[in-house]
Each structure stands twice: as structure tokens, then as C-alpha cells.
Fold this protein.
Amino acid sequence: MAKLLKNLTNKQILVGITGGIAAYKSAELVRRLRDGGAEVRVVMTRAATEFITPLTMQALSGHPVSLDLLDTESEQAMGHIDLARWADAIIVAPASADFIARLAQGRADDLLATICLATAAPVAVAPAMNQQMWANQATGDNLAILAKRDIKQFGPGVGAQACGDVGAGRMLEAEALTQLTGELFQQGGLQDLKVVITAGPTWEAIDAIRGLSNRSSGRMGYAVAEAAMEAGAKVVLVSGPVSLPKPERVQVESVRSAEEMCQAVLTQIKGADIFIGVAAVADYRPAKVSTKKVKSIDETLTLELVKNPDILATVAALKPRPFTVGFAAESHDLETYARAKLKAKNLDLIAANSISAKPGTNATSGFESENNQILLIDRENNIITLEQQPKTKLARLLIQHISKKYHAQNTTKNSRQASR
């Protein structure tokens, strides 16, 4: 249980509560999710408020409870869309037969159903109903529809029911639901693969205290490392100087300069299946580094710069080479420069993001921000846009795309080899 709870650390979980006596178990579920390190928000249907009060759920979650789709205050900022984007995962517990039916029909006639339709996050339902309702063919058909849409089903359990019946239809207990929610972040896809990732800036020394660097915070690279770990990979993160906690269950190699990063990558790349170069590596470094502080006596100072090693191109040129993914941070002509970099460095996939916001402004994406948006381009000229969202969510979507491309490419290679 403890291992799975680590998957909930810093995750944003939306708990949906529908009308049913099992709603009382939702209070314990919220508490356990928070104990696991998750931030929890609660959305209740009006029927749910007949069984447990919003005030109780507000006290347990630490956030106001959302009830209505057409809320004048929240809808000024499209509240249902904000909640759909906010959630890393949604679990509806209890999920009544009525809600399951409405979700299968794609209806958006209340806030909770609308959020489930509007989210890109994984959704799970924990059914809770009378055993005869559970056994009804209509319920089974509706759940089959949800399964085809990749909506997970947690339970139900079997036992005594509030109506006096005994059988299937009980909502699972909070401990089991917490564990299953943690497993939503064990995506698979990269199981047992070795993935090497670079993150953060590099620091190119000028003298004993000064250096050349950039504004990269390392957040994107660290998020990608965590997402790859969640997907089952053995992850090695080669990190420049950042102020971020080390991700759990990830091997972190700390470096400063581009040369150090290159050496660390070439050491760790042996046996790697995938390389993802997220780091903002300095293109140049001072030709000479003073061991003492350079005094600011003269009005001007001239620095001679020399080219740093090209880590991406070096890895992509290895034989055999890992599946190689690059990042392109551009201030303009994003797609043009990304395509050129993809071709010039012989990459399998490139993730391009704009850094056009000016320093000192309230940038909403890119460097020094918790959000980002990405344009993905592959060798076959396929383009996918990952809309602006928190880097943690973006990283999971990116890893999903990398996993699909990697496995598709390997399947093609194996087929060609088998046909020879």
C-alpha cells in the first residue's frame, strides 16, 4: 500500500459523489487520498447532498465543494472546464446506476457528467447499487460502453447491502479505492525499458563565481522523468543545476556544464532504449576560465566562446542508437525551426515549445512556468498539438506518445527482420 501511495504525491484528484447510501464512504476516501499526498477537490450531484453534506466534504478536502453546472461565479471562468483541466485523475465514488447510464450516453446535464466529458485525465467509476440493479443487463451494457472508452471500473464488492439484500453492488472500501487510484498513474507502456532524460540548464563558468546559463527551471524534464517512471521505465535523469526535489524512484546524475552533461549521458546511455533531451544545454562556453574572480576594472569585457558538444546529435548518431527525442524551445517560427532540428539531428521525434514571453512578464508557459504547450513532430511529418496545461500532465501525455511511437517503430523493425 505504501508503495502505491507514493504515486499520489502531488497528484490532483477530483472525487465525484453521486446519490447513494455509499456516499458516506467517500469521506474516508478523500481523507485517505490526502494522506497519500494528493490534493483533492470534490464535485457532488444534487442527489448526493441528500446523503452527505457538502460542508463535510469541504472540511475533509480543504476546498469548497462544486455542485452546479451553471454557477454564476465559477462559470465566469468556465469553472467546469477549469476543473476538468485541473484534475490528474477523476474517480466517481459512489457511481450510481443512473450516473453510469448518463455517462455512457455522453450526457452533460450536470456538473460532474460535464467534467467527465471535458477532461483528458483518466476517469474511473466505483459502482454502488442494489444487487438486482447491478445484475440488470442495461447496467452491464453501459459499463461495457465505458470500458471501450477506457473509463476504469473499480469494483463493486460483494456483501450485505443497506436495502437488506446480499450480493454484488457494494462500493469498494476507501483503502482499496485509494490503492486503485494510485495505480491509475502506473501507466505501463515503458515497462522494463531504460530511459535516459536530461533536464534543466547548464552552467558554463567564466571565472570562480560567474558563469553563462539560461532561465530553464528543469520542471519539464523532471516531470517527464516522473511520467516515464510511472510508465514502468528504469529512469536515469541527468540534471543541470536546478532547485527541485529529486523525483522518487529515479536515478539522478547531477552535473553543471554541457561537457559534464554530455559525458554523463554517454556513460548512462549504454543499454538505453529511449533518450529524451529536455535540457536547455548551452551552445557555447568560454574558451578560457579564470580560477580567480575577474575584476570589473575595464569598461568592456570580451569573452571568446567555443562550441559545446551537441548531446542530441551525438546520441542520435550512436550505433546502435536509442529512440531519440529532442526538445526545441523557440521564440518564433516554432514549426519551421523544429522541423529543421528534427532533420539535422536525425531525431525520431521532436517536442517544440514557444518561449516568446518576455523576461519579467507573467509568462503562462515555457521557461520559469508550471505550464507548457507542445507541438510534436515525427519523422513521418505527423503533427500533434498538446494544448497548454500543467507540465506534469503534459509530461504524461508526452510519454504516452513516445511509448506508442517507440513500440510502433520496434514492431516495424522486427517485422522487417522476420521477413528476411
Summary: Residues 33 and 178 are 6 Å apart (CA to CA).
